[in-house]
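#onboarding

Welcome to the new folks! Below is a worked example of what a typical request in this channel looks like: someone posts a single protein sequence, and someone else replies with the predicted structure as tokens. Don't worry about understanding the tokens yet, we'll cover that in week two.

Example request:
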Amino acid sequence: MLKKEIIWREILYQALEKKNREFTQKKLAEKFKFSTSTVFNALILPRKSGACKVKGRGFRLIDPEKLLYIWASFRNIKKDIIYQTRVEESIIEIENLMPPSVIYGGYSAFRKKFKEVPADYDKVYVYLDLRNLSEIKRRFPPKRGYPNLFVLKSDKFLKTYGKLTPIGQMFVDIWNLEDWYSKEFINALKEKINELLA
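Example response:
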């Protein structure tokens, strides 16, 4: 994941899950140990689109939904896949067999977060630090066939949000999945997000 995406994720996490829409470039730079110019560059597109408005030394997220769509159209989830395989167990069993080092993404994150699903799903997406990949391969060895387990490379900041991807990342990741049922999840997430923003 690129640095600008890490910044967008934090802004959306604060807005959707912490009810905070006020930021300073300096504090974001300090939090991630990025340069202020990196933060400035990450804000160019959100500012141009009207998603963010700069004021004084800081900025405000005006339109979280607009930032979600900017990130969703920018995201390339496939480039983050570091391992995929076929697992014969049910989806719930696959999720339950995961090592504690994973962070659940995609449909699994939705189910675990909201305790429901808008449609059945047949693929599991998890994030993992590269150092722990051997454990996943031991539990789920390479196997031919239709892959239903996808392991994505975790950035070093993702774990600070807990065992699930934040709602903003959940949205943009599912937006980038080709499965027919991804639309059902996106529509359900839109409703959840609207409730959070109400």
